[in-house]
Amino acid sequence: MLVSINKIKVNPGRREIESKDIKDLAKSISEIGLLNPITVAPDHTLIAGLHRLEAAKLLGWTEIECTVSDLSGLRAELAEIDENFMRVNLSPIEFGDLLLRRKEIYEELHPETKNGGDRKSEEIRIAKCKSDFQKPFIQDTAEKLGVHPVTVARQIQTAKNLTPEAKDIIRNSGTDITKTDALKLSRLEPPQQEEAATQLAAGEIRSVDEYKKPYSLGGKRYATFEESVADLKNPNKDATYTADTLLAGMDGFIDDFHHNFSWYSTPMCTVAYPQVNREQLEYIKKRFAGVVTEIDKLLHDIERSMNIDK
Q1: Quick check: is 308 in a domain?
Q2: In this predicted model, what pLDDT tens digit does every residue of 21-40 receive, in sequence order?
Q3: Rounded alpha-carbon distances, angstroms, from residue 67 to 1, 126, 208
């Protein structure tokens, strides 16, 4: 149906529109028309199609074709978020914030999908017929985005761990940040996140890897790929560790540990928490304690060697 543009309401807090995208879209619409109507709720609140709406305004339209959906409230917001995911220019910060909000809405609409929820939620889940089974948030989102569930879980964890202050620094600076840097930033302590984000925003560092590293690697360069392979195969090459290469190796190991260990806090793993018995928990606690003991021993050996050299 045709709806007067001045009657369409846009909820606050939506993503800012890209003016270039609006101009390109307006040009396209002027040439071939509006191929897909925008979607509004019965009260004319916009659900999907903000860029199309703004393009129509730019063209001077007073009316626009709409699909009136019976979605309202949280379901309408969920549909709006899913449309925003289709934008190709979402930053990792924006993408993460949308994921967090989608998770919040999804689990409010489907409380039985929460992992580690209360008894009432569990009773709801058990009472539901298999034919009514609601997919967990991670699975549902992964299917909608066309990605692996691990990808969704990792991005959710990144978005949760990033402090609001670090997000604001990145967002307000207009700095482009990769998903990898967002992940590494989220693993820092809150004060370090803000400091690293400030350095990224100011261009003082090119990636989180450069943030306060107390070591440096020269980075030997090779003229050809064959030369690099020959160097790797050279049995006479001096492969003795230096302080820098030792620290870099340890730092890389710790990064890998954080990367792998964070997996056990994702919903795909936490769902099994209630099934662990006391004997199993005590066993794994001893295993972790052994790791801590070995780390302490290693650090003690390094520190003792430093004192001997002095």
Answers
A1: yes
A2: 788 889 999 989 888 888 88
A3: 7, 37, 45
